[in-house]
Amino acid sequence: MRRFLSLWAALCICWASTFVNAQRKTESPNFIIILADDLGFADLSMNGSQQIRTPNIDALAEAGVNFTEGYVSSAVCSPSRAGLITGRNQVEFGHDNNLSNVQKGFDKDYNGMPLTEKTIADRLKSLGYKTGLIGKWHLGNESHFHPTKRGFDEFWGYTGGGHNYFRSAPNGTGYLSPIESNYKTPQKITYITDDKGDECVDFIKRNKKEPFFLFASFNAPHAPMQATKADLELYRDIKDEKRRAYAAMVHRLDVNVGKIVSTLKKEKLDKNTVVVFLSDNGGPVDHNASCNAPYNGQKGILLEGGIHVPFIIKWPSSLPKGKTYMHPVSSLDLAPTFYELAGGKTESGQFSGVNLIPYINGENTEIPHQDLKWRFTISAAIREGNWKLVRIPDNYPMLYDLSKDVSEQHDLSLEKPEIAKRLLKKLGEWDVKLPHPVFLEGAEWKHNQLQLYYADYQLKQPTNK
Ligand code: CA
Q1: For residues 108 and 105, what is the distance between their CA atoms, to the nearest angstrom?
Q2: Is the alpha carbon torsion for 345, 351, 145, 281 positive or negative?
Q3: What's the 223 CA to ligand 1 centre distance in angstroms?
Q4: pLDDT tens for each residue of 384-400
Q5: What CATH number did the domain enclosing 129 receive?
Q6: Position 151 confidence tier, pLDDT thresholds 50, 70, 90
Q7: The domain containing residue 285 runs over which residues?
Q8: For 350-367, how does the pLDDT look when each residue is reduced to its tens digit (9 = 90+)?
Q9: Are residues 421 and 352 in the same domain?
Q10: Which of 370, 402, 431 is the last residue of a domain?
Q11: How far is the CA of 28 from the centre of ligand 1 (A)?
């Protein structure tokens, strides 16, 4: 009898844990981050583009929440991705810069995202999620930085900062490096944006029974400016060739966003999947003919054009549809949002960002951030409420009132010296407490970035006329 009872108890425990497990699996949302690379703020039809049609990205915003004051934590790829994937402001762990050739005095073993940092993939994996990265990594080329060692169960892509859209070479490096994967022999590249979209679809289908996290890391519309003939033909009315190629590349990105979303619908995963769309930094207008209107500046600098990006979260089962959220939010908020939704308990100081859900749903009526701060090579910036201060090496700091001047045209630092001084102090106190960068880019970038502060930018939507 005793044996029977203990067997019965064991069965009950087993049944209960299976039930809890099954319940957790059905309730835990899936997460997908769709990251565009170097996309201009203006270049989506939802943001007023008169040249580029992006119905699938627009539909994400229509079915979810559009964050009109969405920021990334850096103005270039690698540090922005380090912030996004850890939920920690990357300058707090020395990841200030883009990866580059190792500078004298720096060790190549440290030329990547510090191993002290946990990624959101690490954290979700520990909560039972299947994790996948499709596409660009750009957080270290040495083997110890490899995505499969940073929480990703599956990887299809390349570890560098960009890729040719049509081909790779067997012994190629950089933009021609072979596609690698730990779950299949990679297919020959057709057009890489399509190939990534196909891999995302495949990942969703194979993992639909488990909670999953998919990082869909597109390189579009980062240079090289390579588009298919058919897509170029769609945009034949754009006279400037680079701009035409750019439009065609954004179009193809949009088509593949549509492919991912329609797969979620087909697999009946749409309602309980959190889909995020954003760009890793503003458009580099000089390189890919993007446009950041109405924002001034571009990739590489801390004016709005470098860091203020399209930012959408869609989660049909729990978030309102077609809502606009107008307080500043950050890419640093995504990791803590996902972690808490997946059942993780955030400890104080674990993330720089916050779980956005209570703010979106109105359970928390405060604002998510008292201020946002940036540091990138030569410059630093702070946004507090509608005041934004940008500090550069060769001039007075610039102060803008974003409630009246989204294009940062009227520097108020001399008219409002008390505000400039207060923000400068807050920014400086933060800056001097930060560690040194763990790796550096070549010194020529400093000069390039300074010049970008003095360039003129298109602040209105371009048209075909
Ligand atoms: Ca980028």
Answers
A1: 10
A2: positive
A3: 10
A4: 999 999 999 999 999 99
A5: 3.40.720.10
A6: very high
A7: 29-370
A8: 999 999 999 999 999 999
A9: no
A10: 370
A11: 30
